[in-house]
Amino acid sequence: VHVVESGGGLVQPGGSLRLSCAASGFPFSFSFYAVSWYRQAPGKERELVAQISSRAGSTAYADSVKGRFTISRDNPKNTVSLQMNSLKPEDTAVYYCSVAASWGQGTQVTVSS
Length: 113
Hints:
Largest sheet: 7 strands, mixed
Mean pLDDT: 95
Shape: globular
Structural class: mainly beta
Radius of gyration: 13 Å
Strand content: over 45%
Number of helices: 0
Low-confidence stretches: none
Helix content: under 10%
Order of helices and strands: EEEEEEEEEEE
Number of strands: 11
């Protein structure tokens, strides 16, 4: 099982980033698995940011990102994306993708002027 995040970087407040999570090696089709994005800022606990269910792809978001972040999935490509708009300094964190209790190494997002 292999989960890899990408797409992080440095962006100014109000800017956008698109994170990607690529998953492989699962015993069943990727479409069977729900996928979650978490983030962890320095000195803080890891928090759930967004989730997308298997197949039909219903979504849920933390209150702090509702209306700004959008999670989506491309099952044939075994990927899940997190589109982040109107970024704020408080969005600065390492962002992690989780699929079936497997985690990636994380990707750093820094929002600063």
